[in-house]
Design brief:
Layout (H helix, E strand, L loop, with lengths): L1 H15 L6 H6 L1 E6 L7 E2 L5 E2 L6 H7 L4 E6 L5 H6 L5 E2 L14 E2 L4 E3 L1 E6 L20 E4 L3 H8 L7 E4 L2 H9 L5 E5 H10 L4 E4 L12 E3 L2 E2 L4 H14 L12
Parallel strand pairs: 1-4, 1-5, 9-10, 9-11
Antiparallel strand pairs: 2-3, 6-14, 7-13, 8-11, 8-12
């Protein structure tokens, strides 16, 4: 009897639920995009308009979906997925890497941007810190990472304790911590560290990975993020994305 009730409820839900995730913004003409500040993925210009790797394609994708206006919603890196699930916006355009644990709560678009983690240190590397693939805990090796990032999880798994790992809200905070000597190294994506290094070439340097270390520091992929139930919007977005910016042939598949 209980099973029959559950099956009838499931059937009723399947009959009544309608995925209007694409129709809804098309009716209003507005696409709500969540982002967090992090160079070079998303910054804000003098007029308050976001620009960067993660957001520059958004206007083109919106037009392809018949959406005439973008509503930008800025939040913190740590709140991107919670705010998405709270329906503050329709899609995330930020420096979020495709991770299995994130796929429990959200759905990713096709892979968009390849990244890997690197290490930033003071110019001259006075502490002789090694590349990301070789970072292991040491008594005086304190490292800054973005809160709830893939790097934070990986370094924690390598044995970095809370005393050695400073989790910061964004790249600017990590850069400041390194500058004042609160940490000895900053771990961010290679693109973010290159942006910092380009702005301060005499102050910082990137510790390069040795030749042949690709397997030790593999490429990760960033993508746009949607609510699990918003399948219609995600599928239409992927269709538009494949025309605007086809993925590299080395990008992993993550489902339809």
């Amino acid at each position: 009897m209980a099973l029959a009730v559950l099956l009838s409820l499931a059937a009723a839900w399947g009959f009544t639920y309608r995925d209007d995730s694409l129709v809804r913004p098309q009716k209003s003409g507005v696409l709500r995009v969540g982002y967090s500040i992090g160079e070079p993925f998303a910054e804000v210009d003098a007029a308050g308009v976001p620009h960067g790797i993660a957001v520059d394609t958004i206007p083109v994708l919106a037009r392809a979906l018949g959406l005439t206006r973008i509503e930008w919603v800025q939040t913190s890196y740590a709140e991107l997925i919670p705010d998405l699930l709270d329906r503050r916006f329709d899609v995330i355009a930020a420096q979020l890497i495709i991770l299995p644990e994130r796929q429990r709560w959200a759905r990713f678009s096709d892979p968009v941007t390849p990244v890997r983690y690197d290490v930033l240190v003071p110019a001259g590397n006075p502490a002789r810190i090694g590349p990301y693939s070789q970072l292991v805990p040491g008594a005086d090796l304190t490292v800054a990472v973005v809160h709830e990032s893939k790097a934070a999880a990986e370094l924690g798994a390598r044995g970095f304790t809370q005393a050695l790992l400073m989790e910061v809200p964004d790249s600017d905070s990590g850069e400041a911590a390194l500058r004042v000597g609160a940490v000895r190294a900053l771990v961010l994506t290679d693109r973010a560290l290159q942006a910092i290094s380009n702005r301060h070439p005499t102050e910082f340097q990137i510790v390069a990975e040795p030749e042949g270390s690709a397997g030790l520091n593999p490429t990760a992929w960033m993508a746009y993020v949607f609510r699990p139930e918003d399948d219609a919007l995600r599928r239409a977005w992927n269709d538009a994305l494949r025309h605007v910016a086809p993925a590299s042939p080395t990008a992993p598949g993550i489902g339809p």
